[in-house]
Specification:
The structure is a homodimer of 395-residue chains. Chain A is of the alpha+beta class and 395 residues long. Chain A folds into two domains: 185 residues, GAF domain (Beta-Lactamase, 2-Layer Sandwich), CATH 3.30.450; 168 residues, Hypothetical protein af1432 (Orthogonal Bundle). The first copy, chain A, has a six-stranded antiparallel β-sheet, with helices on both faces. At the A-B interface, helix 1 and helix 5 of A face helix 1 and helix 5 of B.
């Protein structure tokens, strides 16, 4: 009878343990679901990768986590995030598909749970040396989108010293599925953003190129404006709007007769009035693009003067959109430091002097101050013919 | 003693039930995680909403599911998905924040679990009549992004006749969190896509407008090309590429001297050679935009002739990119049905006759056939001055 009772109790205790195990699993799944919402909520790849690492390490109670992505050719696996390492340290950290644990996982498209790497031939010391770590136990899972492997994620060494188990593997695999989707979404968005900016740049450049004296003008004005904007501590969002406004500030020139745009001598009054229509034409052109919003008035007002007397509306001071005031400085600096048919380019020093002289008259003193700061730091360079830049990283 | 034993057994049975309950919960959470991956994997809002509804109904074992989104002004809640209803039926289905259960949830930003709506004052029969349903039990949760309510999701009536419980509410809330994130991502992507297309259209129109005889040309060529493409059963992805190629086919005209572009009399040989540079200029301009890929050669070759003898490369037949062959038909049709300084526009019938005549000589017979089909269906209309269209829905 006693034995019988004892068995009964053991059963009951196991039952209790089993429930505890289930409860812990439920908690982990609920955490994973919450984490998934976080991961999906950003399009910024860097931020996303950092989140995945943080969540992965906490959820797996792991000492380290890293994420690798395949390049377009599928020939190199790049470490894009490694716990404890900064992004800049990762630049040369690549391995080949097939090399080490992660390479094996990517090549074979299968997850690996290795309780002790010292007894596994696939393990490569080279990766450990690269990452300055000592792997004991590891889980590595492929990152996969619609059957295509795009990389791998791995965690190493449980903090409690025990090896990873099947349950950890299943949980980490779930995280990897969600992460792969988010990475792919982030890349698609970045790609479209990049396409949009490249297109804007290309078309603005084509308009500048109608007159070889203004070749590269919009791109330079955009670069100078961004430097001023950074000095003014504008955030990423504002810098993007500023960049678009600057890139498109002269887009209205497409509506100005070519013979006036490219005239080699001074313009007469009638011609000057004609060319002064370009900010208004540009703004009107872009009105149907609802997302441009305030960018449109920034374009309209880039030839207003801080002290009044500019065009098209003759508004002054703070009534002029802030980005227009920034662009006015950048635009004038680029015009002065570029050759014109009727005069040679000013030196950078001369042009800076002129901008200073007209602070408060033509230009907003705040913008001039930031321009001077950026210029003193060597951020604003009058390379008359800059090569075409590639599109900026997606915001 | 007997009472004692009995109590012990009850405990044990409850323990068993608890265990079952936990296992069921784990299964549901695992399903939710899988569902989340699916939801996040599309940017297409319609597809995404359908998925959320399907998953919601299955997960909740519910008779019905609906999703409402707030309009930009926050004044109307639009039913954007209702189980058993087609998208077209939902157009006029709106309620106000505050109205009915969903209106209450959106207004207060709180979830509701109502086991029996007949005893709840917030319940509105009007919504039931609108949706042709009889609600007994309901769960309604807000869709929320970073503290901002964007809408609500609701499920009604458990299929087993029992009312919903707290556990169902918690699960549905998790689904709603993931769905809200996915909806927001989808909208951001659509918005950027829309911005990109609007910008392309605006700039292409501006170039067409340099010569008032070609005003609206690129947009019409794009519309005609898409109709031909649809008749050829191109998929969404291909139609997007075709639209971009058609919209940008004349972009190289930006590099052609205005006096040649707008000349009112016949062009001499030298001028004709000059203007024939535009496909090459356009293609070269766009080379830096890596995402354009094959679109670039479609632009380069839109003036080639199927039988040879076109420009710039004189290639023929299938060597000409397929989209260029489509655009060639659309482009010629629009040119013929538009006025020119030296001739009046052809009638649509005359122009169709000409296109037919040159099938196999100037045009790909497949494209001509599809053009004729689309034209016979009234899909290709020579409205010489079409008003500016809004951007197409995001792909």
């Amino acid at each position: 009878m006693m034995t019988d009772n004892f068995t009964k109790n053991i059963d009951k205790y196991l039952e209790y343990d089993e429930n505890l195990r289930l409860r812990i699993k439920i908690e982990k799944l609920e955490n994973l679901i919450e984490a998934t919402g976080l991961i999906a909520s950003t399009f910024k790849l860097d931020k996303l990768l950092d989140m995945v690492m943080e969540i992965g390490m906490e959820m797996m109670n792991a000492e380290g986590c890293s994420i690798l992505l395949l390049d377009e050719e599928g020939e190199k696996l790049q470490f894009v995030a490694v716990s404890g390492k900064k992004k800049d340290d990762l630049k040369n950290m690549t391995i080949k598909p097939g090399e080490g644990i992660a390479g094996w996982v990517v090549k074979n498209g299968e997850s690996l749970l290795i309780k002790d790497v010292s007894s596994d031939d696939r393990f490569s010391n080279r990766v450990d040396r690269k990452l300055k770590q000592t792997t004991k136990s590891i889980i590595c899972v492929p990152l996969e989108i619609k059957g295509k492997i795009i990389g791998a994620a791995e965690v190493i060494n449980r903090k409690d010293g025990r090896p990873f188990d099947e349950e950890s593997l299943s949980l980490f695999r779930s995280l990897a599925i969600q992460s792969a989707v988010a990475i792919e979404r982030s890349r698609l968005y970045a790609d479209l953003n990049d396409l949009f900016f490249s297109t804007i740049k290309t078309l603005a450049s084509a308009i500048d190129a109608k007159d070889h004296y203004t070749q590269g003008h919009s791109e330079r004005v955009s670069e100078y404006s961004i430097e001023i904007g950074k000095t003014l501590n504008l955030d990423e969002n504002e810098l993007t709007k500023l960049e678009l406004s600057a890139m498109l500030h002269d887009i209205g020139k497409i509506g100005i007769p070519e013979k006036i745009l490219t005239k080699k001598t001074f313009l007469d009054d009638k011609e000057r009035k004609e060319i002064q229509k370009h900010p208004g034409i540009g703004a009107r052109m872009l009105v149907p693009i609802k997302q441009f919003g305030e960018i449109i008035s920034c374009i309209r007002h880039h030839h207003e003067r801080y002290g009044g007397g500019g065009y098209p509306d003759g508004i002054k001071g703070e009534a002029i959109p802030f980005f227009s005031r920034i662009i006015a400085v950048a635009d004038t600096f680029d015009a002065m430091t570029s050759n014109r048919p009727y005069r040679k380019a000013f030196s950078s020093k001369q042009a800076v002097g002129e901008i200073k002289k007209f602070s408060g008259i033509q230009f907003d003193p705040k913008c001039v101050k930031s321009f001077l700061k950026a210029s003193a730091k060597g951020k604003i360079k009058n390379n008359v013919h800059v090569p075409r830049r590639s599109a900026p990283a997606a915001q």
